[in-house]
Backbone:
């Protein structure tokens, strides 16, 4: 008998310590001052002007690059004063930058700027800075800032380049459209949940068509879709895959990011929950093999109750919810309660394990059929209604889910029913996760090998001639790889 347990709310670890606080400062129409002319000064002036600031530069001997800064300002303005600064020059400044080679001169300027109420940056002197500049990805009004706290600027610049490659340049027109449409959308959808649903549709459309400029017809279409969408709560059954967070589908990610509440199982990898939005509630409603488990009726009732309360509920399951995930019972519970329910499939443990091992589950010469079976019934014992003739066929690849307690009895029965004892077989523990482990053998000795290995974690068994071909090919690949090194 499993020990019953109740669903319980969990909390994400929250924020890790921050070396710096990332903030974005509005400088449009405000005054900024830069004094000095060291190596990074001209670029800082151009950045301030690009942000809309009115920049006064004080430098007795400006560089050629600094002399060209006023003409290169893409916004705001730059005025170059070919003289030393004075404290009076800082009056009314919102932002001030010290660009001196001399430490004492920097300290003097920083003190005067702070006394005038300005935010201060000192180039190459982080100990004197109120704020620092990071690497920037500019898709304005979409702006991404990257900081290494000054430790490795080159690393930050490389990260910037990677992000730039991921963000189409056309996103700037979509974000600009969102800014222009926001007032109209807010007036039409005064309820926060409705506005969020609209902007989620907007975001999906932007990612689908990033290189074209949005038009009024896009806004009209989004409004029509939002108006036609059913109101109230809903349930989405989402497959989390076998463990590796990178195996999540894009549709699963969108569901997680739009969920109000996430009901998840024990086997869901913790890092997958990191993709949920910060405001979402997370509740553990897991079942453990032959261990403490939430009753299915309690899970169904909680899921329906939350959805009836207007929440968008994600029921997050390991692997694929439609493969031994009791999805049918949860779908029925939602439909009986009149709750809209959809399913987002996931990568099954069998697919993930086979891919990580480089083994095909089918082979035109060895396995033309693939079958999934469960290793135990409602009582936790070997099912008495398995098709033993099918399980005894070595030309079929059989994958056994939840096999731990009954593996020995199941394989022995299959051999007794005609499965050749030398049929290749293996067990994969913690498929696709960093601690994945494999025990290889055959139908005759696999149970003994697993017992000797003493491994823990979720496991699946695979049996069939196709595995032997895959194992031989994998061994050859490993030998060739070792020889190459």
Residues:
């Amino acid at each position: 008998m499993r020990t019953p347990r109740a669903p319980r709310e969990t909390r994400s670890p929250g924020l890790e310590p921050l070396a710096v606080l990332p903030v974005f400062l509005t400088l449009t129409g405000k005054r900024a001052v830069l004094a000095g002319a060291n190596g990074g000064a001209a670029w800082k002036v151009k950045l301030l002007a690009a942000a809309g600031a009115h920049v006064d530069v004080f430098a007795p001997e400006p560089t050629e690059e600094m002399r060209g800064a006023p003409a290169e300002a893409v916004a705001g303005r730059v005025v170059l004063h070919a003289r030393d600064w004075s404290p009076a020059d800082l009056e009314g400044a919102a932002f001030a930058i010290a660009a001196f080679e001399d430490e004492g001169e920097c300290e003097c300027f920083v003190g005067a700027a702070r006394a005038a109420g300005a935010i201060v940056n000192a180039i190459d002197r982080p100990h004197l800075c109120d704020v620092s500049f990071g690497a920037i990805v500019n898709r304005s009004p979409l702006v991404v800032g990257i900081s290494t706290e000054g430790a490795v600027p080159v690393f930050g610049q490389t990260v910037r380049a990677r992000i730039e490659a991921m963000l189409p340049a056309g996103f700037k027109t979509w974000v600009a459209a969102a800014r222009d449409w926001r007032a109209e959308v807010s007036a039409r959808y005064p309820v926060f949940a409705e506005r969020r649903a609209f902007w989620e549709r907007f975001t999906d459309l932007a990612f689908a068509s990033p290189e074209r400029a949005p038009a009024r017809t896009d806004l009209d279409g989004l409004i029509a879709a939002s108006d036609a969408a059913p109101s109230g709560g809903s349930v989405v059954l989402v497959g989390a895959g076998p463990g590796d967070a990178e195996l999540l589908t894009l549709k699963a990610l969108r569901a997680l990011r739009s969920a109000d509440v996430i009901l998840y199982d024990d086997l869901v990898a913790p890092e997958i929950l990191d993709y949920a939005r910060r405001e979402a509630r997370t509740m553990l409603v897991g079942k453990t093999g032959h261990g403490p488990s939430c009753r299915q009726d309690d899970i169904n009732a909680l899921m329906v109750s939350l959805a009836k309360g207007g929440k968008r509920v994600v029921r997050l399951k390991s692997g694929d919810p439609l493969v031994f995930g009791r999805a049918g019972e949860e779908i029925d519970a939602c439909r009986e309660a009149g709750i809209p329910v959809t399913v987002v499939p996931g990568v099954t443990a069998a697919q993930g394990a086979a891919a990580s091992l480089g083994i095909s589950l089918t082979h035109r010469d060895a396995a033309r059929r693939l079958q999934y079976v469960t290793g135990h019934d409602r009582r936790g014992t070997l099912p008495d209604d398995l098709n033993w003739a099918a399980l005894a066929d070595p030309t079929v690849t059989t994958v056994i889910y939840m096999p731990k307690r009954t593996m020995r009895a199941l394989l022995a029965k299959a051999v007794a029913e005609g499965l050749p004892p030398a049929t290749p077989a293996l067990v994969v523990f913690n498929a696709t996760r960093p601690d994945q482990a494999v025990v290889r053998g055959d139908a005759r000795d696999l149970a003994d090998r697993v017992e000797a290995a003493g491994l823990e974690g979720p496991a699946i068994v695979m049996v069939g001639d196709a595995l032997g071909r895959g194992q031989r090919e994998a061994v050859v690949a490993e030998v060739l790889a070792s020889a190459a090194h």
Observations:
- The chain has 15 helices and 20 strands.
- The mean pLDDT is 89.
